């Protein structure tokens, strides 16, 4: 079943800015879906329309088959949303915030209190449940917004940059939590500027640029569209100049670091053999840039229209 | 259908309880100021100046102004609660908690109005207790008291809601109370009987809805009114219905809330 079906979605603001220019997007039930795009591409507008915080100009949206123009309440009941900007009542406690949120969805207080304990514990906030929201750290506030969005146990969870400004350790624990949630059956749509995050978590991806979907595909297929990949090799002994190996683009970044561009039809074994033959020993290796970042930059052409890499 | 009704009832209760929690959390801003102001009015207008005024409309002046002062507190607090709470939720963006939920707009309006009515009644009760320290308040007609105070609180909660919807900053939350609500209240027969006014001023006063509210309420206590009480209740019911329709329309359109 389609968790989200967006067809011909247009948003034109009163000032004439056309934020969405006929967006078509489908997210299947159970998916972990990445929605990427540069700032101002239309991601938050799209999410805003799905959650009825922004009014659409044209087009249709169905959430688990419920058309938002016909069955808005049923559609809303299926969605949990974690917005990009903090929207907590700073003078309420985490427990009050999540219990009230459940109340807005018609969940009785007794059940709401049980769920509050469950989700605040899972997101490591239970011991902070009586603190004012304004006294929580940025990471805690983000996690509180996730707990709040889960209180009515939505079938579709939309996360708009949930890990922005969160340290690496907490970000990793949030990833684990979201993975478990997805495995348990919740469909998740994620927007993020951390492309490593999208690559690590999501199975399908759409890239939006200037109000249009530039690409929508399976994550693995999109990454396969890369024709070359760049690596940085750390060397045991310094070099004065870059070696030359046929079929590989090599350049010396510094005396102990060699950059290599490898095309998809070649393997690295051959390169290592040739380098060993010249007495060059590689100590370690890492990707120069995140693979998804490379795809993203190719799709989102800052100077003109969005282009797909050849 | 029953499940939907129950869910909406829980949603309504949640908004009202949240508002109640806010009223209690900041009681120094919500309850105390009106009680202190009322006490000052009783000391100055009642004890110091009132003793020189003597009687108004056949009753002791302190007794005469007591229902008006209670009503004044109800009006300003019901209005202020909804306008500031709704605008605060909009400003801090946590109104989105309600906006993304399946609660229909009419429940959201009623929930906020419920909070305003609650504060209006709480402060009204506090001012009543203070007035009893200064004067004796007879009770002539209980239903008039209850209906008048409830309808007045509803009307001004709805008006505060509309103000909260339109307000773009905190100044705009205060404009209406300062430049419209306060003059209407002071010229609404709280401190005097309109029978003291010249004909043109008396006629003009009938256009002031606060005059009808204060007098219907005063009638419940003292059995005296400058206006027709049945007409006063009709004005309140029609005002509430019109303001509710406006508030709901604004919410449906997303005025001040959605781009």
Key features of this structure:
heterodimer; A: 310 residues; alpha/beta; Rossmann fold; Alpha-Beta Plaits; 2 domains; six-stranded mixed sheet; 10 helices; 29% strand; globular; B: 259 residues; mainly alpha; two-stranded antiparallel sheet; 11 helices; 2 strands
Question: Your description of this structure?
Answer:
- The complex is a heterodimer of chains A (310) and B (259).
- With 310 residues, chain A is an alpha/beta fold.
- Chain A has two domains: 223 residues, Rossmann fold (3-Layer(aba) Sandwich); 65 residues, 2-Layer Sandwich (Alpha-Beta Plaits), CATH 3.30.70.1560.
- Chain A has a six-stranded mixed beta sheet with strand order 6-7-8-3-9-10, with helices on both faces. A four-stranded antiparallel beta sheet of chain A has the order 2-1-4-5, with helices on one face. Chain A has a four-stranded antiparallel beta sheet with strand order 12-13-11-14, covered by helices on one side.
- Chain A is globular and about 75 Å long.
- Chain A starts with a strand and ends in an 11-residue tail after the last helix.
- Chain B has 259 residues and is mainly alpha-helical.
- Chain B has one domain.
- In chain B, 50% of the residues are buried.
- In chain B, strands 1-2 form a two-stranded antiparallel sheet.
- The chains are: A alpha/beta (310), B mainly alpha (259).
Principal-axis shape of chain A equals globular
Assembly level: heterodimer
Strand order of the largest sheet of chain A: 6-7-8-3-9-10
CATH topology of the largest domain in chain A: Rossmann fold
List the helices and strands and how they pair.
The complex is a heterodimer of chains A (310) and B (259).
Chain A: E1 2-12, E2 18-28, E3 32-36, H1 43-50, E4 58-63, E5 66-67, H2 72-78, E6 79-82, H3 94-104, H4 109-122, H5 138-150, E7 156-160, H6 168-183, E8 187-191, H7 195-201, E9 204-209, E10 212-218, H8 219-224, E11 228-235, E12 249-254, E13 257-263, H9 268-277, E14 282-287, H10 291-299
Parallel strand pairs in A: 3-8, 3-9, 6-7, 7-8
Antiparallel strand pairs in A: 1-2, 1-4, 4-5, 9-10, 11-13, 11-14, 12-13
Chain B: H1 2-25, H2 27-30, H3 32-53, E1 55-56, E2 59-60, H4 61-91, H5 96-99, H6 105-134, H7 142-166, H8 170-186, H9 199-205, H10 209-222, H11 229-253
Antiparallel strand pairs in B: 1-2
């Amino acid at each position: 079943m389609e968790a989200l079906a967006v067809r011909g979605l247009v948003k034109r603001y009163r000032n004439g800015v056309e934020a969405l220019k006929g967006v078509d997007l489908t997210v299947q039930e159970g998916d972990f879906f990445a929605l990427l795009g540069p700032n101002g591409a239309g991601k938050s507008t799209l999410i805003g329309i799905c959650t009825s915080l922004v009014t659409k100009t044209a087009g249709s949206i169905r959430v688990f088959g419920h058309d938002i123009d016909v069955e808005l309440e049923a559609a809303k009941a299926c969605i949990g949303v974690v917005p990009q900007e903090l929207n907590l009542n700073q003078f309420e406690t985490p427990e009050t915030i999540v219990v009230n949120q459940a109340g807005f969805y018609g969940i009785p207080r007794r059940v709401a209190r049980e769920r509050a304990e469950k989700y605040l514990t899972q997101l490591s906030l239970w011991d902070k449940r009586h603190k004012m929201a304004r006294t929580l750290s940025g990471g805690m506030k983000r996690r509180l917004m996730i707990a709040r969005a889960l209180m009515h146990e939505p079938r579709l969870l939309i996360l708009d940059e949930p890990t922005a400004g969160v340290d690496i350790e907490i970000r990793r624990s949030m990833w684990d939590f979201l993975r478990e949630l997805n495995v348990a059956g919740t469909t998740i749509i994620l927007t993020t500027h951390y492309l490593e995050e999208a690559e690590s978590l999501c199975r399908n991806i759409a890239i939006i640029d200037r109000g249009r979907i530039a690409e929508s595909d399976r994550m693995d297929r999109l990454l396969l569209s890369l024709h070359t990949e760049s690596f940085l090799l750390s060397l045991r002994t310094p070099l004065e100049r870059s070696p030359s190996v046929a079929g590989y683009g090599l350049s010396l970044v510094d005396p102990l670091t060699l950059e290599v561009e490898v095309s998809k039809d070649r393997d690295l074994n051959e390169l290592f053999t040739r380098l060993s033959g010249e007495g060059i020993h590689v100590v370690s290796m890492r990707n120069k840039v995140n693979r998804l970042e490379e795809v993203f930059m190719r799709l989102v052409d800052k100077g003109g229209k969005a282009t797909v890499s050849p | 259908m029953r499940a939907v009704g129950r869910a909406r009832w829980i949603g309504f209760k949640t908004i009202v309880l949240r508002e109640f929690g806010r009223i209690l959390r900041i009681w120094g801003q919500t309850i105390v100021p009106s009680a202190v102001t009322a006490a000052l009015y009783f000391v100055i207008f009642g004890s110091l100046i009132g003793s020189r005024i003597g009687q108004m409309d056949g009753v002791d002046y302190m007794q005469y102004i007591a229902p008006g002062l209670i009503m004044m507190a109800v009006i300003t607090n019901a209005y202020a609660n909804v306008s500031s709470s709704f605008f605060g939720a909009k400003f801090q963006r946590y109104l989105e908690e309600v906006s993304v939920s399946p609660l229909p707009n009419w429940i959201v309006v009623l929930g906020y109005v419920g909070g305003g009515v609650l504060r209006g009644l709480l402060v009204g009760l506090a001012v009543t207790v203070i007035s009893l320290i200064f004067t004796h308040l007879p009770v002539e007609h209980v239903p008039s008291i209850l209906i008048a105070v409830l309808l007045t609180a509803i009307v001004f909660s709805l008006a505060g809601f509309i103000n909260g919807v339109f307000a773009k900053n905190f100044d705009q939350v205060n404009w209406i109370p300062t430049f419209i609500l306060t003059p209407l209240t002071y010229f609404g027969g709280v401190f005097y009987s309109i029978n003291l006014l010249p004909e043109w001023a008396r006629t003009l006063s009938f256009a002031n809805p606060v005059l009808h509210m204060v007098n219907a309420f005063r009638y419940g206590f003292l059995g005296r009114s400058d206006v027709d009480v049945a007409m006063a209740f009709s004005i309140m019911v029609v005002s509430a219905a019109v303001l509710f329709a406006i508030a709901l329309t604004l919410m449906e359109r997303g005025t001040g809330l959605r781009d």
